[in-house]
Structure formats: C-alpha cells, structure tokens
Specification:
Elements: E1 2-6, H1 14-28, E2 32-37, E3 53-56, H2 62-76, E4 80-84, H3 86-98, E5 105-110, H4 114-120, H5 125-139, E6 144-146, H6 149-159, E7 166-168, E8 180-182, E9 195-200, H7 209-221, E10 227-232, H8 238-247, E11 254-257, H9 264-267, E12 272-275, H10 284-292, E13 295-299, H11 305-308, E14 316-318, H12 323-336, E15 347-349, H13 352-358, H14 363-380
Parallel strand pairs: 1-2, 1-4, 2-3, 4-5, 5-6, 6-7, 9-10, 9-12, 10-11, 12-13, 13-14
Antiparallel strand pairs: 8-15
C-alpha cells in the first residue's frame, strides 16, 4: 500500500508526533510511505523512520501548496492520503480535486475539539474562511479520524457531519508499555521535601499555563506546599507568562523551559504532572505522564483528559481555570506524602487495569486500527 502523510512539518507538535510515529510504523510493516511537509522547525524535529521518504513543498503560498501536492499525487498515485490538522486537511482537499479523474482515499485527521478551538479564536474573516473550508474538507471525505470520542462528537455537531463517517483512534504514544511503576508505599515522601512538578505544552490560550502560575502561587504562599514547576514549551504567551511569574515573585518556583522533543524520557523524574488546558484533542504528554507512573492532576476539559484518566480513576480532575482547586489537589498530595516519582528504585508491577487501559495508546494497537480501517475503505471505494 502506498501511503502519503501530509503535515505542515514533522516537529514541534502533538499531531506531527503522531504522524511521525504512524508513518514509521507503517513503513516498518513494508508499506511505501512518504511524508509531505512545508515548514522546517529546526531543533524541534521528531526522528522519522529511515524508510519514510520525505518531500518538502517549497512555496510559501497556501493555495500554491495545493498545486504542488496535486502534482506529487499525480506522479506517485498513492492509495491513501492521511492529512493532519486544519490547514493540511484543506490543502489536501483542494489537491485531490486538482488530480481528477485520479482518485485515492483521502482521510482528514482532526486532532482537537474544533468547536472549542474556533469559539476561542478571534472572529475574523480569515478564521471564518478557515473554519468553513475545514468543514468542507471533512464533509466531503469518505471517513474522518479523530483522537478522542469527545472531539468526535464536537466535530459532528460543529460541522454537521454524519457520525457514521467519523472514527476515533487514540494517539500512538508508547512503543511498548513499561512493566513496572513507582511504588507509592516505599518511595519519595513529599512532606517537608520539595515536590517537582512538570507541565508540557505550547504556551497558548488553549493550554492556559497562566492558571498553573496562579495555582503554584496559591499552593506555596497560602497552603504552604513546597513545590517547583518546570513548564516545557514555546509559544505566543511566553512574555506574558514570564512577566506574571516575576510579578508574583515566583522566579525560584516556576521555570520556563524550551521545547524538548524527548521530554517523555524526562517526565518520570518528576513527582507531579500538571495539565491546565481549556480544550484539547488527546494530549500526548498527559498519556506519557500516566504511563510513567507519576501523579497526574488535570483540568476536566473537553476533550481528552477524562478519557485518558478514565473519569478520574487514574488521576485527579479539576475544573477548567480553577487554580484554587488545582492548588488544593497539589497540596493534598504534598501533605499526604503520596507523590510518586518513577525514577525511584522501588517499583511495583503495573496493575492489570492500568495496563489494559494504556494498551489503547500503543503504536502496535493504533497502527493495526489505522491499517484495518484504511484497507476496508480502499476496498469499498
């Protein structure tokens, strides 16, 4: 099977990370895989599988990219095209129109809650056109893939899609599942010791790290918890966050770290993973934190966290924007001495319930779901 992946880049974001992992897994199974992109993110690139061919679109004009992609499609005639996020979905839609009468299976991948995303974006002519064209690209596709059930429901509501064409497949986060997790009975006791917390995500309105700054302030200065927070990510709110941290006198408590493409290998060295998003698709970092064995506190935003934490069974869910509830959850873990660090030498076996839950996010499970769905729909065309 000849498969095209179309993304704006192969670095710096959760959607790109999923596309890179999937492309590599399909190439490892012997499929002919190409990865088409147009932006370089130096220092933020994820590592592509050696058998994945890359093709960079040189033009900076969005509509001209559709012509370039259509030319590649005409020359190479893929069986299926998997595009990821709004703009690549739109470009792929027009590119496929330009290749008529050649027809292949076009599969848009929507990686966020579109209704929440566009509701929070400033309403301009450009955003209205973008939303409209993205809806058109999804409605005209034979199938659309989402990465959480909640974002699938939101997609159907917002774009008036037939629910039967929308399929949920979770993100491929783990190559293999860890067999052991930290033992909370014998490990780090948080009381009277500094707790190291971590957050990973773009510094943006959606991720709402301002809420974390307020929560750490309240946990430390009102509730008396000894907590530090590292925030890994880059984005448009860097200066605002830096100023708020300084304004609250938290320079020795909260640290803005640069984007790290290998952050999943470091998460287990922390005690707490804090997640503050206002809306999501299916956050990889939250899944990675759950698999590492450290404690997780997340906002119960639409979509993703509740599905990942199974309604709060595997972590703590707090209200969106509720910094006091987040602070209280942090302090509760701190004073009870229950904060876990997977880097501690004491370990226990992963519970059967958690293992079964996390298997949904393994590369083998997810790739088999993609391959089966694609094969079935190619045969039905």
């Amino acid at each position: 099977m000849k498969v095209f992946f179309i993304c704006s880049s192969f670095g710096g974001g959760g959607a790109e990370k999923v596309a890179v992992k999937l492309s590599g897994a399909l190439a490892a199974f012997g499929h002919d895989v190409s990865y088409i992109y147009w932006k370089s993110k130096e220092g933020q690139e994820y590592e592509l599988h050696g058998n994945v061919k890359t093709k960079k679109i040189s033009t900076n004009k969005t509509f001209l990219r559709a012509f370039e992609v259509s030319r590649i499609i005409k020359n190479e005639r893929p069986d299926v095209i998997l595009s990821f996020t709004d703009l690549p979905n739109i470009i792929t839609y027009f590119a496929c129109l330009l290749t008529w009468p050649y027809k292949c299976l076009r599969v848009p991948n929507v990686r966020t809650n579109v209704s929440a995303k566009y509701r929070h974006m400033k309403s301009t002519l450009v955003t209205k056109i973008l939303s409209s064209l993205h809806g058109l690209s999804c409605r005209s596709a034979p199938i659309v893939l989402v990465n959480s059930k909640d974002s699938g429901s939101a997609l159907c509501e917002y774009y008036r899609l037939d629910a039967s064409k929308v399929h949920c497949i979770y993100n491929p986060v783990f190559d293999t599942l860890p067999s052991e997790l930290y033992n909370s009975d014998n490990g780090v006791i948080c009381s009277n010791k500094k707790v190291k917390a971590v957050n990973v995500g773009r510094l943006s309105q959606a991720k709402d790290q301002h809420m974390l700054v307020r929560a750490i302030d309240h946990a430390v200065n009102t509730l008396g918890a000894d907590v530090e927070l590292d925030i890994y990510g880059e984005g448009e709110l860097y200066d605002e966050l830096h100023s708020e941290i300084a304004h609250r006198g938290l320079q020795d408590r909260i640290f803005l770290r640069p984007f790290d493409p290998n952050i999943e290998s470091k998460i287990g060295g922390y005690h707490l993973f804090l997640f503050s998003s206002r809306w999501e698709g299916l956050p990889n970092a939250l899944i990675e934190a759950l698999g590492s064995g450290i404690d997780v506190i997340s906002t119960d935003c639409r979509s993703g966290p509740s599905e990942i934490l199974d309604g709060g069974r595997f972590g703590t869910l707090v209200g969106i924007g509720d910094d006091k509830e987040m602070a209280e959850a942090i302090a509760r873990l701190y004073f009870e001495g229950n904060c876990n660090s997977s880097s501690n030498s004491c370990a226990r076996e992963m519970s059967d319930d958690l293992k079964k839950h996390l298997e949904q996010f393994t590369i083998s499970f997810v790739t088999s779901q993609y391959a089966q769905l694609i094969s079935r729909n190619i045969n039905e065309q």
